[in-house]
């Protein structure tokens, strides 16, 4: 499959230096991944300017260079340059044209917000499958196209990768695709030229302020998915002020919008909720119609996720009764309050959760406390090279547990001890409230040793991740696997084993 430069940039303001009918065989934004005949996009990144790699791209076989300024190259006699004002937007536009606008071939659901995106995509997938639809999922845990699944580098892939994935979903004849849409993706135009059937908002809490700097800027990035650039039906959780503001904007734009939340003014809100250790029973008011069902997920925050998914399914045209039936078989989402199962746990329940923001940590701990007879213990850390302002807040939130163990998360290129020091700044000086153990395995073992029958342990921060980022190393580490190993070490592999 090839497209000419004229076809790729039709309708996009550009200047051609060279052959406008040059055939393009593929799209690349990393010079090391260029194949012969590709167009290379000189993306101006946060740390690296792609214009510096134009010659390397040509050396790898690029025939077209898309840039924001003319690049002077040593060997470019037969290379076409496309000059644009924004290479990110140009790549998104070209990618959609290269793959023939694949997102128009199915109902695409875009879900944004700080917490709950992954779980909601899984719930939407479950509902759509139960309604007889072919589905796809794109998000933090990975990408699923039909029966195939693979990992993704970003929550929302770069535009050329994203459109290629959409094309694969079209080939798999997907009917409904649920996608997590990050604030970075919206700000960096990865979703530009993507057609959505439904866009949904979960909540906004502190995260990524190292990138966005202020809550207002963070919100405005999320709100882009509800702007006129992305026309769609809307679903908005109104349990925080940001959701209420987004609902106001949607109403002002005469959008078709469904509101959800614990707020009784929401079109979808709970009338009764019963929390149990293995499931939740819910009586839901859905636009005046009451529906009662139970589902095998726990915690108040999952009620929010269920309501958001319910609203999305309504906007997709699925009947209320069908949605409720589908949710009764809701799947366990990897690393989202996932209980670690071993033959003998000594009466200690261990849950692994991706909670890596203050709000998510607080909600996960509260959910576990609601289903625990004994004490709650939390093991957590904070990632390096990320929003450092939330570290002390995370420490303060962790004190809601009966005991906390502060450890390493993904320190990346920061000193793990310096990150831990930032965390404990918010935890006071009571030595009985928490312990510090930088080694994550040892920290999990310490929490298990501290626990008694009837207690619950939350291992937070990494969830589904099966690695730990330390410096430039990617180490094998899965909280679920490690917790299972440490439970077996503490209590024996079989009931009654010494």
From TrEMBL:
Domain Mur ligase central: 111-312
GO cellular component terms, semicolon-separated: cytoplasm
Enzyme Commission number: 6.3.2.13
Highest taxon of the lineage: Bacteria
UniProt enzyme class: ligase
HAMAP family named in the record: MurE
Name the record gives this protein: UDP-N-acetylmuramoyl-L-alanyl-D-glutamate--2,6-diaminopimelate ligase
Organism of provenance: Berryella intestinalis
Lineage of the organism: Bacteria, Bacillati, Actinomycetota, Coriobacteriia, Eggerthellales
Gene name per UniProt: murE
């Amino acid at each position: 499959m090839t497209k000419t430069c004229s076809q790729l940039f039709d309708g996009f303001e550009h200047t051609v230096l060279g052959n406008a009918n040059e055939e393009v065989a593929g799209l690349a934004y990393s010079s090391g991944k260029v194949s012969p005949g590709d167009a290379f996009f000189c993306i101006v990144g946060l740390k690296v300017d792609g214009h510096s790699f134009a010659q390397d791209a040509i050396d790898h076989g690029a025939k077209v260079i898309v840039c924001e300024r003319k690049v002077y190259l040593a060997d470019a006699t037969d290379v076409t340059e496309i000059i644009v004002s924004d290479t990110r937007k140009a790549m998104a536009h070209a990618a959609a044209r290269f793959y023939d606008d694949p997102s128009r071939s199915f109902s695409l659901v875009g879900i944004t917000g700080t917490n709950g995106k992954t779980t909601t995509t899984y719930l939407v997938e479950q509902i759509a499958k139960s309604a007889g639809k072919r589905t796809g999922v794109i998000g933090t845990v990975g990408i699923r196209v039909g029966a195939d699944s693979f990992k993704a580098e970003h929550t929302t892939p770069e535009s050329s990768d994203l459109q290629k994935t959409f094309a694969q979903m079209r080939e798999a004849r997907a009917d409904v695709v649920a996608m997590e849409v990050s604030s970075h993706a919206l700000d960096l135009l990865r979703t530009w030229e993507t057609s959505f059937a439904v866009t949904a908002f979960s909540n906004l809490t502190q995260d990524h302020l190292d990138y966005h700097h202020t809550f207002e800027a963070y919100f405005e990035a999320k709100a882009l998915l509800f702007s006129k650039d992305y026309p769609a039906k809307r679903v908005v959780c109104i349990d925080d002020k940001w959701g209420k503001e987004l609902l106001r904007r949607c109403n002002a734009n005469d959008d078709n919008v469904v509101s959800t939340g614990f707020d009784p003014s929401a079109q979808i809100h709970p009338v009764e909720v019963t929390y149990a250790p293995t499931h939740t029973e819910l009586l839901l008011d859905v636009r005046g119609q009451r529906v009662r069902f139970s589902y095998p997920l726990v915690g108040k925050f999952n009620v929010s996720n269920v309501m958001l998914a319910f609203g999305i399914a309504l906007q997709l045209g699925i009947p209320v009764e069908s949605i409720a039936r589908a949710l009764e078989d809701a799947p366990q989402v990897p690393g989202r309050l996932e209980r670690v199962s071993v033959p003998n746990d000594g009466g200690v329940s261990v849950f692994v959760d991706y909670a890596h923001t203050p709000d998510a940590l607080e909600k996960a701990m509260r959910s576990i406390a609601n289903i625990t007879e004994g004490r709650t213990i939390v093991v957590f850390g904070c990632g390096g090279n990320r929003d450092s302002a939330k570290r002390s807040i995370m420490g303060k939130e962790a004190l809601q547990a009966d005991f906390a163990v502060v450890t390493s998360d993904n320190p990346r290129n920061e000193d793990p001890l310096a990150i831990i020091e930032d965390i404990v700044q918010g935890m006071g000086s009571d030595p009985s409230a928490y312990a510090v153990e930088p080694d994550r395995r040892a920290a999990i073992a310490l929490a298990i040793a501290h626990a008694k029958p009837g207690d619950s342990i939350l291992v937070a921060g990494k969830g589904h991740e099966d690695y730990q980022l330390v410096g430039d190393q990617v180490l094998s580490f899965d909280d679920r696997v490690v917790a299972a190993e440490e439970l077996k070490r503490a209590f024996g592999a079989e009931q009654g084993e010494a």
